[in-house]
Structures are given as structure tokens and as C-alpha cells.
Amino acid sequence: MRHFDLVIIGSGSGNSIPDERFADQRIAIVEKGVFGGTCLNVGCIPTKMFVHTADVASTPKNAARFGVDEHLDGVRWADVRDRIFGRIDPISAGGLRWRAEDNENVTVYQGLAKFVGPKTLDTGTGEVITADRFAIGAGSRPVIPDVVDLDTVDYHTSDTVMRLDELPASMVILGSGFVANEFAHVFSSFGVKVTLIARSDLLLRHEDREIAERFTSIASAKWDVRLKRKTVRAERTDTGVRLHLEGPDGAEVVEAATLLVAVGRTPNTDLLDLARTGVTTHPDGRIVVDEHQKTVVDGIYAFGDISSEHQLKHVANHESKVVQHNLLHPDEPRSSDHRYVPSAVFSSPQIASVGLTEEQAVERGVRYVKGTQAYASIAYGWAMEDETGFAKVLADPATGQLLGAHIIGPQAPTVIQPLIQAMSFGLDARTMAKGQYWIHPAMPELVENALLNLPLD
Ligand SMILES: Cc1cc2nc3c(=O)[nH]c(=O)nc-3n(C[C@H](O)[C@H](O)[C@H](O)COP(=O)(O)OP(=O)(O)OC[C@H]3O[C@@H](n4cnc5c(N)ncnc54)[C@H](O)[C@@H]3O)c2cc1C
Ligand SMILES: NC(=O)c1ccc[n+]([C@@H]2O[C@H](COP(=O)([O-])OP(=O)(O)OC[C@H]3O[C@@H](n4cnc5c(N)ncnc54)[C@H](O)[C@@H]3O)[C@@H](O)[C@H]2O)c1
């Protein structure tokens, strides 16, 4: 049986662990799917390439108010898709080739890893291996909801919908979170009639309520948004799919050419037979880790979607760097920093947030003051004719320390970054607003004014 110093399960964020400092270690990487993981192949990167393309396709809709008349001649789906994957697929293939052929100390196993004993792994390739240490970054996969007869219809998840052969005339999207709202923007901008089915009373209900309410109201004007609906049964039709729903007005049906299921992601722990090696999991399936990303088994670490409550690439990257350090310096371990984890929804409009929502502040009894600023009242907002976007900041009334920040509107994920920086480094709102220049008339003036609008002494 071959023995390694380190085995990495999953080639997503885990692939960045072995660098030149590991040159004297024998390393195995086990990957069951496409090399490079979710973000590169079926997640952040292709979706954002589609989102930008959707932004380009939707400009004519908003052009007339600027006195510019434009029209969309068409969307060449095959060209859109092939531009994106024509860039991504070679990166994945190149990454695999580099690890498998050019890294002398690394062996790549292309199979489904499963523990068969303490620190003993079946690589799914016919070979069982052992190692002193393991780094588990096996990620998550789409949840398939319990809807009667769903298995009898052709449905897509984020894993497959970006590679459709052709654009459908219509799409029903089950779910109301990140994936649902990003793809609703993409496909509706390409001319697909989109219906969104949400269980909750709001889209993006994890966001600050005022932000989710604003988003839901904008989305409802563009898409057929069905809130408070339970999907009970799916049915195949001659032209696609029919969903049977129960909602506030009783039973109803929705039909579309294509169904996209986007109701969350579950960690891939069930594939790993972790009990064989003693690694424990939370009730929701995530691997239990401490602040050093260590599992309960000495020498076994986990990071990213398989263990984190934040299913975000910047978190997976951060945690994999912590694992990398702790593998190299076990006696001086680093801790992961989850104090201010930001997130962004790249839909239309865009949303970004960090820290507490107003509802969380109330629930936790945290004292706060609030400052808001509309894009419509800053100079660049006039330039963009934005009428719906705003920023909202929450701060401690005694110290001025920022507690949370939420932005809906153009380039929100970029505009929010100085607030993430201020929170991470403990810069108070007044010093931040008044202690630096803000380029005029640029979009960060939104942040400056939201800070100045905080009722602080
Ligand atoms: C559509 C979509 C859009 C997203 N957009 C964003 C975004 O804009 N920003 C953001 O921050 N995050 C985004 N995310 C989330 C982000 O992609 C994930 O948080 C991140 O990729 C997780 O990285 P990871 O290294 O933990 O796992 P992954 O990248 O998923 O890597 C895990 C790898 O392990 C492999 N694997 C699993 N089980 C086994 C096994 N038993 N044996 C061998 N191999 C195994 C898998 O095949 C996979 O390649 C998006 C996700 C999706 C689905
Ligand atoms: N921009 C980004 O950072 C980005 C983009 C895409 C995905 N992601 C990550 O991937 C994860 C998965 O995304 P997601 O959108 O699938 O999950 P999500 O958790 O964001 O949203 C899932 C939604 O589906 C709803 N839901 C659950 N079961 C349902 C059912 N049976 N019928 C109808 N609705 C149901 C939930 O109430 C929830 O609102 C996210 O949590 C996020 O961390 C991030």
C-alpha cells in the first residue's frame, strides 16, 4: 500500500495548498470530477462571466432614458457559452496536466475518495493509500428537493445549466437564493421568460430585510415571482415541465421549457465514509473543525464548503491558506478569521453585505445607529439614472465602530470593499468618513455619505 506525507481530497481550493514549500513531501490529490473544483468549473467564475454578458445584453433596455436608442439584435447562445468555457476548460485541463505531469512529488488520483480505515483511503481508482496527514476540501453539491416525480422530468442544476445546447423559451427556477437570482438575471437578459418559485415571503431572505424587500420588488417587476409557494409535484409535458404548487391562493401550476433547481448546497461528507477514520460531522453534514481547521482526528484538516458555514470561495481560499500554514508549522498554528465575512449576489441589481443585518442586531440586543444613502442622491447615481439602489450602514452608537454594511445597486460588491476594510481593521465610522479624500464624483461617495448620515456625535 502506497504511503504519502499528505493527501488532499478535492482539487478546488485544496489544489492551492502544495507550493514549493511542500517540495520534499510526497503528496496525493484525489479528485472525483473535473479538476479545479466548483468555483472554476461550475461556480463563481463561469457564472460571473455569464452575468457580465447578461449586463451587456440588457443595456438597450435602459438606454432610452439617456437619450440613446439601442436595440438588442440577438444573443448567440452558443457563442456566449463557448467563449466562457473556451477559456475555463483549458485552465482546468492545464491545471490537471501540471499537477499530474510536472509536479514530481504529486500524484493525482482521478477517483471518488472514501475512507476505509484510520488514515486509509480508497482512491476509487483501484488503489488504496495511507497518509500521515489529510486535508479535506471535498466541497458541496446542489440539494435536490423532495418533490414528487422530480426524477421523471429533465431538470438542471448550476452544474449543468450553463452548458445548455440552446436557449429555452422559458425557465422555471425553484429557489430564491444566490444561484436562483443570478441565473434569473442571466437567462432573462438573454430573452428567456423566467418564473421564480420561492418558499419564503421574500427573495434573498438571508439579506438585511430592507435590501431583500427592495430586491424582491424590483425582481417582481421583471420576472414572474411566486412567493410563499410549496412545490409538491413535477410532471413532464410535451414541451418541458409542469410544476404543481401550493400557495396562499391554493393550488396552481407553472409550465416552462426548462427547470432549474437552486435550493441550496449540501456538503459532500456523505461520500467520504468519514466514520472509518473518526472524523465527526455537524447535524447538517459539515465536518467539525476547530479554529485551526483541525478535525477531531490528529493530522486531519478540513476547509471550505465541506466544513464551513459560509459556502463562499473567498472563505474556502482563506481557510485553505490556514490549513497550508498549519501543515507547515503545526507548532505555531494560525486561526481562521471569520469575523467579517462579506458576500455578494451578482444579479440585477447587485447586492453586497458584511456584518450584522438590522434584524440580527435587534435579535441579539446589539445597540446600533443606522445611516443610509441612496445612489439617486450622489453625483454618479445621477449619471447612471439609478432610482432604486442604496447603502445602509450600522454602527455602535458609543464607539462608532461599524457593525454591518449592506448595499444594493450598481457595482455593490466593489463599492462595499472599503467598509469591509474598515470593519476588519477597526476603523470607526467618523474617522473613516472624514479622515481621507473620497474621489469626486465616484461611486464610493455613496459610502462616504452613508457614514456621514450616521447619527453619531
Ligand atoms: C453557481 C455557483 C456560483 C457561485 N458563485 C460564487 C461567487 O460568486 N462567489 C463566491 O465566493 N462563491 C461562489 N460560489 C461558491 C463557491 O464556488 C464555493 O464556496 C467554493 O468553490 C468551495 O470551494 P471548496 O474548495 O470548498 O470546494 P470545491 O471547489 O467544490 O472543490 C471540491 C472538490 O472535491 C471533489 N470531491 C468531492 N467529494 C470527493 C470525493 N469523495 N473524492 C474525491 N473528490 C471529491 C469535487 O469534485 C470538487 O472538485 C458559487 C457556487 C455556485 C454553485
Ligand atoms: N455570489 C455568490 O457568492 C454565490 C453565488 C452562487 C452560489 N453561492 C453559494 O452557493 C450556495 C448555494 O446557493 P443556492 O442559491 O443554491 O442556495 P441558497 O442557500 O442561497 O438559497 C436557497 C434558497 O432555496 C430555498 N429553498 C430551499 N428548499 C426549497 C424548496 N424545496 N422549494 C423552494 N425553495 C427552497 C431556501 O429557502 C433558500 O432561500 C449559497 O449559499 C452561496 O454560499 C454564492
Automatic annotation (TrEMBL):
One of its GO terms (biological process) is 2-oxoglutarate metabolic process. SUPFAM superfamilies: FAD/NAD(P)-binding domain, FAD/NAD-linked reductases, dimerisation (C-terminal) domain. NAD(+) binds at G175, S176, G177, F178, V179, A180, N181, E182, G264, D305. Disulfide bonds join C39-C44. Its cofactor is FAD. GO terms for molecular function: dihydrolipoyl dehydrogenase (NADH) activity; flavin adenine dinucleotide binding. Keywords: Disulfide bond, FAD, Flavoprotein, NAD, Nucleotide-binding, Oxidoreductase, Redox-active center. Binds 1 FAD per subunit. It comes from the Bacteria. The active site is at H440. The keyword Disulfide bond applies. Pfam families: Pyr_redox_2, Pyr_redox_dim. Residues 341-450 form the Pyridine nucleotide-disulphide oxidoreductase dimerisation domain. The keyword Nucleotide-binding applies. Belongs to the class-I pyridine nucleotide-disulfide oxidoreductase family. This is Mycothione reductase. It comes from Umezawaea tangerina.
